[in-house]
Amino acid sequence: MELYNLTSNLEFLLLGLSEDPELQPILFVLFLLIYLLTVLGNVLIILAISSDSHLHSPMYFFLYNLSLSDMGFSSSTVPKMLINMQTHSKSISFAACLTQVSFFFLFGGMDSLLLAVMAYDRWVAICHPLHYQVILNPRLCRCLVIVSLFISLVSSQLHCWMVSQLTFCKNIEIPHFFCDVPELVKLACSDTTIDDIIMFLLSIIVGFLPGSGIFYSYYKITSSIFRIPSLIGKYKAFSTCGSHLSVVCLFYGTGIGVYLSSTVSSSSRESIVASIMYTMVVPMMNPFIYSLRNRDIKKAIQKIVSQIT
């Protein structure tokens, strides 16, 4: 059997969602609308936070970076899928595949780590309100974002290096709409034991540890809220966490769905559907969740829209 690795002139075939020619235009329009809504929603969040001085606080600083990350996360996979659907092509070069892997794990890791940082922000705001500005000073906020970026960058480059070392057989067909690393590892002709270990360790660092930090933060937040004597006080305290908690449940819920669908089920279609939720729907929903549940964001966005119109 003839073997190839990513240093050769190798192209992959992304099988995508469906080969039905009648379904392709419908899927193209649907995913194009989702992508445009994702970009528009996150751009409005970014402009709102940048233009309104009342939103220049740690919580909105982290939300600003989360919106940037969401746009990057969606853009790492969706445009290539739309181009392939429009041109009726399935091919992706090894260089483009590596680029996609790099940006996918960079922005996906950033999302996970920033959500953990935002949980820490809510914990300080509710459990230590008098020291909030002192603890979450601008320098610490910048450091938390930079550390999140650094960890995500290391994770993405390790994934790229790992994929670049794989050896593949001829005519690689990926049963997905993007270069999904677990699928690439499954298709490799070489031994992938080390690759499986690397993926497991990186999933702990970028997924499990931030998730554990979020869980611990909300455990402390819930304990503090229950000690508040009045129902109004409890509601106000919890309402400050509502948007973030909704986004966390959506992000980690779909992420767990992707993991379970790839490990429990052998059906590639179920994995693709779960990945669509993870890579497209979640980045699109985040701006709507924050704008609908946050009065300050809603007012700032309304001001921007009124100025444009």
Structure description:
The protein is mostly helical. The chain has a single domain, classed as Rhopdopsin 7-helix transmembrane proteins (Up-down Bundle), CATH 1.20.1070.10. Helix content is 76%, strand content 5%. The chain has a 3-stranded mixed sheet with strand order 3-2-5. Strands 1-4 form a two-stranded antiparallel sheet. The termini are far apart. The model has no long low-confidence stretch (mean pLDDT 85).
Offer a concise description of the structure.
With 309 residues, this protein is mainly alpha-helical. Helix content is 76%, strand content 5%. The N and C termini lie far apart (63 Å).
User: What amount of the residues lies in strands?
Assistant: 5-15%
The best one-word shape is globular
Describe the largest sheet: 3 strands, mixed
Spatial order of the strands in the main sheet?
Answer: 3-2-5
Distance between the termini: 63 Å
Q: Per CATH, which architecture?
A: Up-down Bundle
Topology readout:
Layout lengths: L2 E3 L5 E4 L9 H28 L6 H18 L2 H10 L3 E3 H34 L4 H4 L2 H27 L2 E3 L2 E3 L6 H7 L5 H34 L4 H33 L4 H26 L1 H14 L1
Parallel strand pairs: 2-5
Antiparallel strand pairs: 1-4, 2-3
